[in-house]
Design goal:
globular; mainly beta; eight-stranded antiparallel β-sheet; Jelly Rolls; about 35% strand; about 300 residues; seven-stranded antiparallel β-sheet
């Protein structure tokens, strides 16, 4: 091959690699914080997420739990690499698929660890950098990707929402919006207006939620009075719930347990998609399968005291 042609091939390879390099990031160093958990999803393409860190949720419900995960989702969760695997470029991909018979499959994973909580007088920080499924409009109806946390008492007692739930990021129907929500108390109604929860939402700036990687962060801060729960999008604060907004018994329920575990999933259909679409059943015949949520990293830190 002529030398000029060799350099053309090399340059082309570099240019093709640039989007991948920009899309990937290392778990950030956090001076003053202690790293207690992280996964940057390095590994061979097609490999499942680290079984020492993550467990799979399978089927349509927890054993003995409500059908369709209690939210009328239509997908069946699997551990099939087609639904959940590493891409070989430092990312995890969770991909909803529709089979020839019309059945939707996807994946949901949760950390084995369920003791994530702030130290006395300190702060807990849970974070993920990810990109939503790259689909919008009619083709996105029913997509419901999420990064969230459940109280460990849910594993022991199976009582929701008393166990507490921090929705760090939810997106639905391919919209350029993300929601951060607290679920607590009793259902229906209760101090968190269940099943709605107490929430807030924000738009992804710059590239949309579907077209670029964004960082989603949740903090539980015990170093301030009153204690606070905070939601951030790309480092920008967009939601705060303080202890004084809830009855003391409710705050104790969600904060007095050993800790929380993290979850990542892409559901299809369900109550949230139904509500946001104005009462349409989703997914529809126009919904396109095969668009993954791509996760760059997940990390948890704690800090003792104020900065």
């Amino acid at each position: 091959m002529p030398r000029s042609r060799v350099w053309q091939v090399v340059l082309l390879g570099v240019l093709l690699a640039l989007p991948v390099l920009r899309a990937r990031a290392v778990v950030p160093a956090m001076p003053g914080w202690q790293a207690v958990f992280s996964d940057d999803f390095n590994g061979a393409a097609g490999q499942r997420p680290d079984p020492a860190r993550w467990k799979f949720d399978l089927g349509h419900n927890y054993p003995g739990g409500p059908a369709h995960w209690g939210t009328h989702e239509v997908q069946r969760y699997t551990d099939d690499p087609a639904n959940v695997s590493l891409d070989g470029r430092g990312h995890l991909r969770i991909t909803p698929l529709r089979g020839p018979d019309g059945e939707w499959t996807s994946a949901r994973i949760e950390t084995w660890r369920d003791d994530f909580r702030p130290p006395e007088g300190g702060v807990l920080r849970m974070e993920a950098r990810l990109r939503m499924p790259q689909v919008s409009g009619e083709a996105a109806l029913g997509y419901w990707p999420a990064f969230w946390a459940l109280g460990e008492s849910f594993r022991r007692l199976g009582i929701w929402p008393q166990s507490g739930e921090f929705d760090i990021m939810e997106n639905v129907n391919g919209l350029n919006l993300v929601w951060g929500t607290l679920h607590c108390g009793v259902i229906p109604d209760g101090p968190c207006d269940e099943p709605n929860g107490i929430g807030q939402h924000a738009a992804c700036e710059g590239p949309s939620c579907q077209d670029g990687f964004h960082t989603f962060t949740f903090e539980w801060d015990r170093s301030v009075v009153p204690e606070a729960l905070r939601w951030y999008l790309d480092g920008k604060l967009y939601g705060v719930i303080t202890r004084d907004r809830l009855p003391p018994v409710t705050w104790q329920q969600i904060t007095g347990q050993r800790g929380y575990f993290l979850l990542l999933d892409v559901a299809m259909g369900g109550d949230f998609a139904y509500a946001i679409s104005g009462g349409r059943d989703t997914p529809t015949s126009a919904t396109e399968p095969g668009h993954p949520m791509v996760v760059d990293y997940v990390a948890v830190w704690t800090r003792t005291g104020s900065p």
